[in-house]
Design a protein that fits this description.
By secondary structure, the protein is mainly α. Helix 2 packs antiparallel against helix 4. The N and C termini lie far apart (about 50 Å).
């Protein structure tokens, strides 16, 4: 049985796994939409790969502290309605939705980084992931300008 601090850390990290899984789902849905421009397709594929890596690294940390990785559970719907459409939305809407999801993910990471339950070595890992998330957000902002 996990002590309360470890249990809270596992819960926070599992939240990050879930939000990365939602990010993967969001961009994979967009990649399946017909008519997606090539530059978007390339970026979204990279973002899916980054979230897979984030999930793996966080999962390893969860297992290292003897926690268990949650099976997928419903979380707040961070996926804008655009991703559920069968066709590719206009670029402005698409990039606004991408920016919104990147902001939401960044906020979840910020919350985790300020938690007293996350040990310093895990914060260092999460900070590296945050830098990549910030880079993705900047790339999306460049595409929209």
């Amino acid at each position: 049985m996990l002590n309360p601090r470890t249990k809270d850390a596992v819960e926070i990290l599992n939240g990050l796994v879930r939000i990365n899984n939602r990010r993967i789902q969001f961009y994979q849905d967009l990649l399946r939409a017909p008519g997606l421009p090539g530059e978007y397709r390339e970026l979204f594929a990279v973002l899916v790969g980054e979230s897979y890596q984030n999930t793996i690294w966080i999962g390893i940390e969860i297992q290292t502290i003897e926690g268990s990785i949650d099976s997928p559970t419903p979380v707040n719907n961070i996926i804008p309605a655009t991703a559920e459409k069968a066709i590719c939305p206009p670029a402005a809407n698409l990039l606004a939705d991408c920016s919104a999801i990147e902001t939401t993910i960044r906020e979840a990471y910020s919350s985790a980084l300020t938690s007293v339950y996350i040990p310093q070595y895990m914060r260092d890992l999460l900070k590296k992931q945050v830098r990549r998330l910030e880079s993705a957000k900047r790339h999306i902002e460049r595409l929209s300008s």
